[in-house]
Amino acid sequence: MFAESALVHSGLLSGMRVVYYTPWVFKFPPELWRVLSAFLLTGGGFSFVFDLYFMFTYASGLELNSPRFTQPGDFFTYVVFVATSILVSGGLFLGANVFTQSLMLAFIYTYAQDNRGKKAHFVILQIPVEFLPWAMLTLTLIMGGPHAALQQATGVFASHLYDFLTRLYPTFQGGRNYIQTPAAIKRYFGANTSTYTHRGYGTSFRPAQNIPQQQSRSWTSGFSSSWSGRGAGRRLGGD
Fold first, then answer.
1. Considering its fold, how many domains does the chain have in total?
2. Does 87 map to a domain?
């Protein structure tokens, strides 16, 4: 993000080479790098510094300390889901060309949900952290107008959708969490090796995990295996 934004704002790289534009992405040959580079371009001036600071602070805060992302690759899966939701809602429906502010607000919203009851700094004030996403959205509305605020709000939509599908719906409605980190991604991020992780509350040790390969099983084998591991029956009240 620093490298791309520095090149663009210094005039060494044209911003038109990195922003998202649907006809350029799906032309032949496709300019697929725009799908990623549109999430890495900060604003100019002071926004260059503040965007980098907020992105690093809240992204690293989630990756290292969030109770949601305890397994290898969980944070990566979250970023992919949130970025895809922003791309669809902001890029295809609202015509946005840069998604950095939306992604940053998504991180802040998830961070705020995980740290309810704490305080956060906003400009020169201290406010409850759960109000921080709405305060930043209000600031964007004042400085950038309704369209800029609507585009940035796609970050809140994406992170709330993730929260609903992975926590609210399974917990309170008894539904299934379909957003699971694939085994291949877990292995890529080191699920098969033991590591020490430095958390905000101390150091945690994660032993190596054996991730079995998924096998196709019929409904009969799935039913029988659930009972095959049971021991011999014993009559109540007997010797």
1. 1
2. yes
Six-digit token string for 185: 């991604």
Gap between the Cα atoms of 91 and 35, Å rounded:
10
In-domain check, residue 26: no
Task: Tell me if 152 sits within 8 A of 135, measured CB to CB.
Answer: no
pLDDT digits (tens, 9 = 90+) for 192-224: 765 555 555 555 555 555 555 444 333 333 333
Q: Which long-range contacts (CB under 8 A, 24 or more apart) does 107-110 make?
A: 107/55, 107/58, 107/59, 107/62, 107/155, 107/159, 108/54, 108/58, 108/132, 108/133, 108/136, 108/155, 109/133, 109/155, 109/156, 109/159, 109/160, 110/62, 110/66, 110/68, 110/78, 110/159, 110/162, 110/163
Sign of the torsion formed by the C-alpha atoms of 39, 43, 49 and 51: negative
Rounded-to-integer distance, Cα 77 and Cα 72, Å: 10
Q: What pLDDT score was predicted for residue 217?
A: 38
Residue of 182, 178, 201 whose CA lies nearest to 72: 182
Tell me whether the omega of the peptide bond preceding residue 67 falls within 30 degrees of 0, making it cis: no
64 lies in which domain range? 47-188
pTM of the model: 0.79
Amino acid at 110: T
- Is residue 64 in a domain? yes
Mean predicted confidence (pLDDT) in 32-53: 93
Q: What are phi and psi of 41, to 5 degrees?
A: -105, 115
Residue 40 lies in a domain: no
